[in-house]
Records
---
Amino acid sequence: MSHTAHIRSHRKPRRSASTIAMRAGVAGGVLSTLAVAGASGSANAAEPVTQTLELPTLTADLAAQVAQSADVTQQAAASYELQAERDAAAAKAAKQAKADLAEAKKKAAEEKKKAEEAERKAAAERASRAAERATLSASVDTGSSVGSDSSGSGSSSVGSSSSSSATGSAAAVIAFVEAQVGDAYVTGGTGPNSWDCSGLVQAAFKQVNIDLPRVSQSQSTAGTQVGLDNLQPGDILYWGGAGSAYHVGVYVGDGMFVGAQNSSTGVVKASLDYDPPSGAVRVL
């Protein structure tokens, strides 16, 4: 024992167990409260950081990515659509080109067929003209004619007063038209190897410096009207009415005429009964 223990004022007061326990409880409670508050404060401090810093950043990036992805998707769709249109146009062009080629081949085949047919027809016409010339030559050689007075009774018919011997301008006109026998008939033809009826007559009279109108209607009134029973070599024969004739030829004597008849016969020399005329005019 301390030598001062017997002195009351020097004794340390004893703390009761209850006081110590209470103080310990209070301290423990305070420490617990501080710990809970600290934990809660840490949690509360961490949550605003997550909300204000990380989440907005992630949301903005995601929106940018979505927008970028949408742009890429739209561009890809536009590219696919453009390519589809180009492919469709190319397919349509190829189809049209194929159809055009088929049509061109078809037309070429038709033209070739027409050309071959025209050549066959021309060959047939040439053969026909050759046969016609042979027939006409034989007819002339046998002295066949129209209107000869075979009975001696004095009755006459077309061309009975004509003479087979032409002179002067008439002879020149006749020589010209007879030289064209066998040439082709072509509408609007004026020679030298193809004629229509009025073109041949006009060219024949031009040999003797007589300018006739170009068409049959006008040629049928170009001279003096004469009867068919009073024909002379060199007279112009016409078919149809005077002033409205549709065909003309040249009387060459002996009941014969020369004319560019049609595309089948060409220029022929034939008897008047082969195609009897409607009238005649004389310009020589």
---
Amino acid sequence: MADEADYPGSRRSVYTTLAAGSPFRHEIEVKRSRFITVLARTPDEDAARSVLAGLRREFHDARHHCFAFVLGPDQDVQRSNDDGEPSGTAGIPMLEALLKRETVPGVADLSDVAAVVVRYFGGVLLGAGGLVRAYSESVSSALALAPLVRRRRLRICSVPVGHAAAGRLENDLRAAGYVMADTRYEAQETVLRIALPDDPDSLAAAAEHVAALSAGNARLMPEETEWIDVPMG
């Protein structure tokens, strides 16, 4: 659960994004028009536009490929496009659906997400208000079903340990609730990597826990901070 300490000033140390994996798809129908929403996790603008380009090729016979995306921990980059729909009836409602999505009560922190809505016209004009509602609902209903994760800025700490002992220590650390980053395998040892809150008390407690679990044979070595996926909750 996020709290106010996660959002000091304007620089966030946590935000919400899509879980890693394939883009999420969801479809609604409004007066015979099909609205196919594709949500993709995108770390930068090139990736977001690549998703759009791929969907233009896949749904080459669709009339519209409208998009919106939000990037960065502080949602600094925001783009949208109506792709031929009347101005303001598609891209902006889609962008607002991304920006207003509350991931916990009172917190709208979704980012690094691109939304593309592919529309197949069904022969019935929806009008400006109808289009705004349809594009907004298409993205909002997809977000309600899509898997989400927290991205936290955490201190990475390495724990060098002999190869034979690494598996058991890693299992013990996971069982204790620690978030594990990618493990490094070196010639003489395995380097487990733990993602911890970047404060002295958390680091000291983890160091004591590692020493206890390893009977004093392993020690915690703080390194850089990284953005790490952690489960929602």
---
Amino acid sequence: MTRSGQDYLEALRDGREIWLDGARVKDVTTHPGFRSAAASFAHLHDLAADPAHRAVLRTADGVHRAAAVPRSYEDLVARRRAYKRWAEAGFGFLGRSPDYMASAAAGFAALPAALTGEHHDGAGPALALHRRIAEDDLFCAFTLTDPAGSAPGDDLRVRAVAERDDGIVVRGAKTVGTGVVFADEVLVGTIEPLAPDDTEHALSFSVPVDTPGLRLISRTAYAQGARSVFDRPLSARYDENDALLVCDDVFVPWERVLSYRDPATTAAMWWRTPAYLHAAHQSATRFWTKLEFLTGLAILIARSNGTDTLPAVAQATGRLLGMVAQAKAFVLAAEADWEPVDEGRGGVRPGQEISFAQRIMAGELYPRALQDVKLLAGGALIQLPASGHDLDHPELGPLVRQYVRGGGAPDAHTAPEERIKLLKLAWDALGSEFAGRHEHYERFYQGAPHVYLTMQTWAGGADDCEALARACLDGYDLGTAR
């Protein structure tokens, strides 16, 4: 089924339990804190349904390319082009768009046997999840992070509290549910390895967001504080939100349980299947797109300031363009370094070593890119009219137009309205609360540094590096002639 944006919005009106600022949200499609982001996700569905974009976004069978199991290098390239088209629609700021989990689900489907555990066979539920996403164009989000800290005897983590013939009853919480308030389903689980004896928390399942007992407590909705798109062009439209997910005796049918009471299987669904690497391919493409946006913003600011030809500014722009090239190179290299899944029976996956390394690059590069753009913008970012409507004020308007304009030669000055529009966009990307969330988000997008830096040591390449250094050592000794 090819869903339109309107189909998607109608599906969100299902009575899901979402809380914001102490009040229950009746309808995310009309609430001021959520409606604009819902419309942005709807736009992605409209793009996928548009014949003009069909060849890029869908396979010949009509499935979104993210949900199709890639069988070749060419399929990976086609996937990346689809990721890029959607990422550009949100300028890289929709970090968990529907193609993220669609890619992961295709990874489950590529090697479903990895989800067959000692206590539960999750292969069937994993394949069913993939079918729902692929055939019904569903938006599946996920939440995998446990709440920090527990009082003695008080387990905050999601676990099963009862077993029934037809399923399990779960209780507990997960945090940082990015995009869950806008999703059709949510995958609840864990991605970090559990202790072999921690069977109680070895649990993964996917349920509709309107499942009884499932509650979402939203963080501040940045869109609600954005007075207009002109004043907050990113916050007002692309705040995908993060929420605390609380399960209050939620019933989960067995056919929706992907792993159960098996730490090995709970980890294998991400690390033995290509699920994580497929999702990382999407996120790396989005990150590349986001850096393109920031660099383009820097170029526009320098031109508006009349400083774009100064050597120091040209060097700063070159450094940003170099960052874009680095981000692009990681994507293309991971594709070219593709590896077979299950000896080819599960298709192919992007190269693991390079995909893992991209996490290190992205987490370190994004704050540097922001810093460089801020330096190019200078103090103009913090001296802007409170509202773009000041331009229309009978008394303030003439003053604003006189004193807020670009640099350079008088005949090259940026018009006041365009100058303010550009700098407000820049502030929203660089200095607003929305921007602060994104800087922190990119630092931890692929997990905590202590986790992914450690994982890099077993991603591949260490033996080759050691062998090369050893070859040099073995090539001489005390008796070697000069």
